[in-house]
Amino acid sequence: MNQPADSSVQDQRRSNTTGSGSAAGNAPASGSGVSAASGHSPGQGLEPGGSGPAAGASSTPAAHPASHHAADSDHHGHNHGAFRPRGGESGLNLKPSGRTHASSAGALEDRSTHPAGQTVGNVAVENPVFSCRDVNVYYGQKHALKKVSIDVGRKQVLAMIGPSGCGKSTFLRCLNRMNDSIAGARVTGHITLDGVDIHDKHRDVNQIRARVGMVFQKPNPFPKSIYENVAYGPRIHGLARGRADLDDIVCTSLQKAGLWDEVKDRLSAPGTGLSGGQQQRLCIARTIAVQPEVILMDEPCSALDPIATARIEDLIDELRAQFAIVIVTHSMQQAARVSQRTAYFHMGDLIEVGETDKVFTNPRHRLTEDYITGRFG
Length: 377
Known about the structure:
Layout: H1 3-20, H2 60-63, H3 65-72, E1 130-139, E2 142-152, E3 157-161, H4 168-174, E4 185-193, E5 196-197, H5 205-211, E6 212-215, H6 226-236, H7 243-256, H8 260-263, H9 276-288, E7 294-298, H10 306-319, E8 324-328, H11 332-338, E9 341-346, E10 349-355, H12 356-361, H13 366-372
Parallel strand pairs: 3-8, 3-9, 6-7, 7-8
Antiparallel strand pairs: 1-2, 1-4, 4-5, 9-10
Helix pairs in contact: 6-7, 6-9, 7-9, 9-10
């Protein structure tokens, strides 16, 4: 006979608890924003239906002001007068619609506030290997690259990012004059390699390309043996005095490319018979065999699987101790992993350049922020 009464009392208690907006285990600790029962801090994500403050939803805004205001942003990512953290309080949230910038809204700069062609950030570095000023590229009547100025530092990686067709690969090809081979292409401006203009009529373009090697998007080994793929460059440039020197160059280059242990017993096998990742490392070995100063890489991992990509990225990090490296990539995560400086291109303009961690966590230009957060591109 007492069982219905007990059930009624329990129902009444549940009703009182729900109405108060603070369940017994979910009351926030005073001034801390931490759930007393769950022990989770406001920054920790809680699974729906988990042990965090789900039932006591009415207490959530008080305990979690940042989460509350982030929810006020509409699905286009606009924050209607809501909370925006001060510098240093927040980093990069790669969700485009919920990202809060690490600086105040007023710190972002629009292109319209600068003279035409001016880049945000410091384009110059001390003792650069490449110095480029006011570089323009035309394909017929199309103005593909507009007054780009930037330096390439020694023994560091410069990553160039931006949406397809923005001009980053076009600029990369300017650095070893590969645009010369494109009909209708015209390059203006000044590009110096160790202080000497690469477009000087007295410069041998083949010597420039020996000093500035290139690795392409798709692995392109020669239809020769693994040994001959690496030995070809040193032989035609006269870098080896005999077979012993050539053997040493081949061995050293394959070791630097991280490929020696995998192919040392089959150097006479065709280079085209290797896997995709091995072929790309063979191409890197072929490039460094002629002892360049700079290595250009045009999306070197886009055709590779994640394991091969990781090996190439590790290799890039090792090679920068000896070479300046310029890499074009569509992967912002890759740019963040391998580079020390990042340049963002948009519609033929160099929008922003700076240290990689600052560009990705605290971009100064609105277009840069929109691109790295995925709003376009």
